[in-house]
Specification:
This protein has 2 domains: 2-52 and 379-422, Urease, subunit C, domain 1 (Roll); 56-367, Metal-dependent hydrolases (TIM Barrel, Alpha-Beta Barrel), CATH 3.20.20.140. It is built from 13 helices and 16 strands. The chain has helices at 75-84, 103-112, 136-142, 157-167, 181-184, 193-198, 206-223, 245-256, 293-304, 320-323, 340-347, 353-358, 362-367; strands spanning 2-10, 21-27, 30-35, 44-46, 51-55, 57-62, 87-92, 117-120, 174-176, 189-190, 202-203, 237-239, 261-266, 310-312, 382-393, 412-422. Helix 4 packs across helix 7 (206-223). The longest helix is centred in the middle third of the chain and has 18 residues, at 206-223.
Length: 427
């Protein structure tokens, strides 16, 4: 099978073609030719007025609901939503039923990927309860790309400390979403003037910031132990879904000290603030919550200066029964696979597109120790093609995912994925 991508501008940091407009011919999943003009009448054509192309996008934070919660979203639906969003690969959190805490669980998810690559993260603690450790070495050898309790933050400092010590022995990665749940108990949204105005219990920024301070101090302690061995330029600790200005500053300072840390931000945190909750729309109920305008500004600055390494969807499907409730009864979480790029492109404050795309192509694979595809002749194709100028409205009736809990419903967005072209061993 031949595919010809015609007159697409390449946006890929590190590529010799970055910024150039080229034709790309792919045959049997291999990039055969990259040139100014390619003619092949036997090839399927991908063309448009303002096409862009990059390495295949990678979302490193997706909540899988299968097995156990298929009524929220199946793996088949997740794959189709990812493809619609331009992703060729995603990393899955372990909060399924049963929890991804065995070799069999890891193998099941790795084999389940058909249209895209699925990379399971495994639980740090059994059932993600924060009490007893999983068999992390076995899970690592089975193919787990990182260790995390997913939507649950590690509250016990001894658990986090011993996890870091353990992971140094085989070059593993710990992913933790920083939240002191004692400070956010019963919280519904950001603690600030809006929560006070509408009478909702707030979730203070301090809950994130204190946890980052704690985790960084424990990381420093681990690095001082004689048996700790750290891979050069590879993070040992990754902070997920940073949402506060102080959180960004803390991680920036940690990186300046040379600590092996990385972090990501959920794309919706770059687009909305606490003011968007004045309408009590449960599609805006997320954890961490939408913060202030100054926090959003700090997140964009963190992306610009490299403090924030990756951008994620934090795709968290919920069924209608979990969202169509009073605000304080509704579940947290939004879907985001289908809108990540469009939201990023629409709300961008002026960052170069190749810099932003590196946050969903190069950085996730580097953080998770995965091979990075190449955009060159002779390489296996792993590409996302997108239309930069497409203006479209995200409507509930057109959502591909089984779940419909998106804060972008009814929003006009700019930019849309056109195709994912990926070499497949199953072709």
């Amino acid at each position: 099978m031949k595919i010809l991508i015609q007159a697409a501008t390449i946006y890929q940091k590190g590529s010799v073609y970055n910024g150039q407009t080229k034709d790309i011919l792919i045959e049997d999943g291999i990039i055969r030719q990259i040139a100014d003009h390619i003619t092949d009448p036997t090839a399927s054509l991908i063309a448009g007025k303002q096409l862009g192309v990059s390495l295949g996008w990678f979302d490193m934070r997706v909540h899988a609901k299968e097995p156990g919660y298929e009524h929220k979203e199946s793996l088949s639906s997740l794959e189709q939503a990812a493809l619609a969003g331009g992703f060729s690969a995603v990393a899955l959190l372990p909060n399924t039923k049963p929890t991804v805490q065995t070799k069999e669980g890891v193998h099941y998810l790795k084999r389940a990927g058909e249209a895209i690559s699925l990379h399971p993260m495994a639980a740090v603690t059994l059932k993600c309860e924060g009490k007893d450790f999983t068999e992390m070495i076995d899970l690592h050898h089975a193919g787990a790309v990182a260790f995390t309790d997913g939507e649950y933050s590690l509250q016990n400092p001894d658990i986090l400390l011993k996890s870091l010590q353990y992971l140094t022995q085989f070059g593993g990665l710990l992913v933790n979403r920083p939240e002191d749940t004692q400070l956010t108990h019963f919280g519904q949204m950001h603690e600030g003037h809006v929560s006070t105005l509408i009478g909702m219990k707030g979730m203070p920024e301090m809950a994130e910031e204190l946890m980052i301070i704690r985790d960084l101090r424990l990381l420093e302690y681990v690095l001082q132990t004689p048996f700790a061995t750290i891979e050069t330029n590879k993070p040992l600790l990754h902070f997920a879904c940073i949402s506060t200005a102080v959180g960004v500053a803390l991680i920036r300072a940690a990186k300046a000290k040379g600590l092996p840390v990385s972090c990501d931000v959920a794309v919706h945190q770059l687009c909305f603030t606490e003011d968007d909750l004045l309408g009590f729309d449960t599609n805006f109920k997320v954890n961490p919550p939408f913060r202030t305008a100054s926090d959003v500004e700090a997140l964009w600055v963190g992306l610009a200066d490299g403090t924030i390494d990756a951008i994620v969807s934090d795709h968290h499907p919920q069924d209608e029964e979990s969202k169509k409730l009073e605000f304080d009864m509704a579940e947290f979480g939004v879907i985001g696979l289908e809108t990540l790029f469009a939201a990023l492109h629409t709300y961008n404050v002026g960052l170069p597109l190749d810099e932003l795309l590196a946050k969903i192509t190069l950085a996730p694979r580097h953080i998770l120790r995965l091979p990075v595809p190449e955009l060159k002749e002779g390489a296996k194709a792993n590409l996302t093609v997108f239309d930069l100028d497409c203006i479209w409205e995200y409507q509930a009736k057109n959502i591909v995912s089984d779940a419909k809990n998106s804060p972008f419903i009814g929003k006009q967005l700019k930019g849309k994925p056109v195709a994912v072209v990926r070499y497949s061993l199953n072709k």
